[in-house]
Protein 1
Amino acid sequence: MGEVEEPALVQAKALVKRFGEFEAVRGIDVEVRPGEAFGFLGPNGAGKSSTMRMIACVSPRSDGELRVLGMDPGVDGPRIRARLGVVPQEDNLDAELTVRQNLQVYGRYFGLSRAHVRRRAGELLEFAQLTDRAEKTVESLSGGMKRRLTIARSLVNDPELLLLDEPTTGLDPQARHLLWDRLFRLKAAGTTLIVTTHYMDEAEQLCDRLVVMDGGRIAAEGSPAELIARHSTREVVELRFGPGEQERAAERMAGLADRVEVLPDRVLLYTMTGEATLERAHERGVRPVSSLVRRSSLEDVFLRLTGRTLVD
């Protein structure tokens, strides 16, 4: 007998969010399974946060179907919210309270007993690596510490589903890696994560599966490896040239790769075998200032699907 698949924790069909005439989310289908880290990846304005707010039951859907933890947010919002953890883009901690008080006061909102909240706060301080800062005010914390405290606070009610909106924006590399480590631990302990991000390395590190959103629609869906296999090549050759030389060099390399992309400062060759392609470019007399052969990344996929130009 095969295993019975657990029902999806989040299920959206033809989900729409309108603000007046503007359609921010334009009919998307999403399914998040128990125990996975699921990502919404996209440029600013793609509809990621609007989708997250509907899942978090703080913004009503305009159309389509949505089930969170098997319930309808339009009817069971309070019951769903009691079982969710939400980490907003902006830290909204109480700056005047101590680190420990922030956890305890928040825990009381869920109607948890004082003794339970006290014990849980101790565990979460340890988890967030903030035990030595417990009695300090939030004002005295660094950006990375505040972010860890915001995540710890979202875990006070032992949520089954944790929603993280742009969790590491504005953090330095060390703080980001420490935060990722904490999220890996949560996932290993069975918490389901939904993450929005516009950082490719974050999505590649954290997400088992993700959707790339653009203009309120889903442009692609799969694991990071599947998306790279489907929308890019195994390797990319980056060739840098002096000012104005890349156009001529690209003409010489026509047909050498699956795709040739000319950028203001370099030429990218998308190919299965980078070294062999680079050799053939040299044989055609192409002399770049520098060259690099690298594996294709999620960033290549993202830029191909959503374009390199900024959308304001």
Note: The chain has a mean pLDDT of 94.
Protein 2
Amino acid sequence: MLENFISGVERFSGWLWGVPLITLLAISGIFMTIKLGFFQFRYPLYIFKQTLGSIFEKPKGEGTVTPLQALTSALSSTIGAANIVGVPAAIMFGGPGAVFWMWVIAVIGMAINFAESVLSVHYREKNEEGEFVGGPMYYMTKGLKMKWLGVWFSFALMIELIPSIMVQGNSVASTISQTFHIDGLYTGIVMAAITGLVVFGGIKRIGRVTEIFVPFMALLYVGGALVIVVINIDQVPAVISLIFSYAFQPMSAVGGFAGAAIAETIRWGFARGLYSNEAGLGTTPIAHAAAQTDHPVRQGFWAIIGIVIDTLVVCSATAFVVLSTGVWKQEGALDNPSALTTIAFKESFGAFGGLLVTISLIFFVLSTVIVVVFYGSKQAEFLFNLKAAQGIKVVYLAAIILGAVGAAQTIWSFLDLALAAILLPNIVAVLLLSGKVKALKDEFFESEKYYLKDIKDKKIS
């Protein structure tokens, strides 16, 4: 009876996270892109200069952490195992053309992520410790005057993170067990200890840690991927041709690849892009809400850069590794797509390559856990108080250990449903507040205090 119920839940969540939610997110992204005047296409250089181009300048305005620390905290959550193991799956089930659609949805999703972050900063407030806090629960409560929707979002996210953290704990424990033959319990205890040391220091400590951690782990992995692409540089023109030509036509079977229809190509590309950068989920704006900034729109630009790094850089690095080495065409590739990145690195660098992927995976997952524990504590703070926020951190640390020893695997089937319970109220809120986002965006670009001043100062200098 229980097995049938779980099987039914898995089928329903598989359907829900297929065409229905992907279509909702794609349409929402297109709507916000049009509403905001295609700004991500019109101001790319300006956005880059105001974000990564300004990291050595003193941040403007007030906040708890620097804009860069807010970005690296958000990236800790989005850059995860899916960037390494999810992209090969998209290629195996959707074909090389899925990479093109992953890029398309990333660019469209920028408008959603921008809107979430702008709203989070605009409606943020200070807590008892003098730290800035914000996120969907605050713009639902203060912007929409729908506290019940904020409570729904907050409670759903706080609870969903327990099995989610268990999955992450299990992922690291399994990887370390296979590579270093260390018992899962010890891995879980060490992970929980490291996470606890960081998260009990609050957003300031998390920001300081991720500011060093994220660039290091991203450069380690992307650097290795770039070396592989350079080794196979003669294959790059063919890879680019595959990505663009099979984005618009079905691809027949070749080697270990079973072939894919156009609908599947688009679906897998959209799914990989959206699941990777979390646009619409309402999680990354919680990190951006604490940033030091003089206007919500300026921090919104950092949210856009987050998608560039997560999807257009890290996911693309994985895609080019898998496609340029040809591992996607090897016999049996469809049996275990998640292993293809490791196989490509091993073929290129030997045993060191496999170790590099393993270490990257551990870093990616550990940084994800650190930040999602922070996200969960902010929900408890919103729903109850600061004491409850500290209490839920202990629950999450226990979840890491339980997950590492393989406990509660049946709960994992409900993860996607819980994610839908978070995403739906957030998308509704963003769409209902789209007028406010547009007003803030127009204010920024039309005011002598912000965009026009920046342009004028640049001309003077």
Note: DSSP finds 21 helices and two strands in the chain.
